[in-house]
Amino acid sequence: MTAGWLARLALLTALTAPVWAAEPPVELELVSEHPVDGMDAGHLSGMAWCGDAFWAVSDRDDTGLYRLDASEPVWRAEAERFELLPPPETGLSWGTRMRSLATGLARGGKMDFEGLSCDGLGNRYLVSEAYAAVLRVNPAGTAEWLNLPDSLVRQARASGMLLRFNAMFEGIAVDPEANRLWLAAEHSRRGLLVMHRNQSSWQCTGGCVLLAEGGHETPPAIMDEGEQPLRFSGLAFHGGKLFTLEPVPHQICRRRLDTGAVERCWSYADTALAEDRRYDTPFGNAEALWIDEQSAWIGIDNNQATRADGEKRPVVWRLAAPKGGWGAKR
Fold first, then answer.
1. For the domain that residue 74 is a member of, what is the CATH number?
2. Confidence band for 106, pLDDT divided at 50, 70 and 90
């Protein structure tokens, strides 16, 4: 290829690239903040709207979901108990399973539930980071483990994911018809996986792995921290798109369903890093995400830490949807 062709190709690429790709993410506006009473130790690790209310899950509670009473500015978590059956064998290494078991016995929460999603019938879906398994709890409170494909973990590990302890599945999303289910691997490498329902079981159609990526990124300058691994901490489905919660840069990104490729990102850094909301930790601690037409809802797992203003409870932020909505190109 001649130098002239190379120059014309570079110009064409620049002209056809999305304008927003070179722009910093737009900052989302905080609408309201809601401390949550009633969740022991402040471990709010997943959140979703189910039927007529928000529900939450704690990574320290193996047998409970929490209905969030949002009638007052301070929300109240009301526990719903379910019977937990032994988790299935999913193909994780013996070493990973033993470390998860030991950690769960020491700190509580052997399942380490790290995400929550709901379908249109009100079924709740929880992902266990310790066992790389998905639990479905129906509206009547009956729990059962999903029959996931045997190749799910094998494909993830072959792509470099799920190889490190405590860096497993961190987010889950399901479409309203419960025909598709997505999982987010946390870091080192992070990624997105998808499965399709086939009656009572789930399968990888053309492969489960949508996206797998390594590397590092730099937190906002105000944190004065070095580079950290690329990380997902939450996942949501809305309007035919996936939305990832990315705590290192403090942003939410919209991604394609077919490839997981990022299309657009929005920042919540001004909210998270306001002086009175800061925690004494180098890591972002936003772990729960729900998207609706008007808002993004972010749940904070404070992990027993106290905020700069003295707040010790988990907190939910409501951020206004961007101008033009979540589907806007710019």
1. 2.120.10
2. low
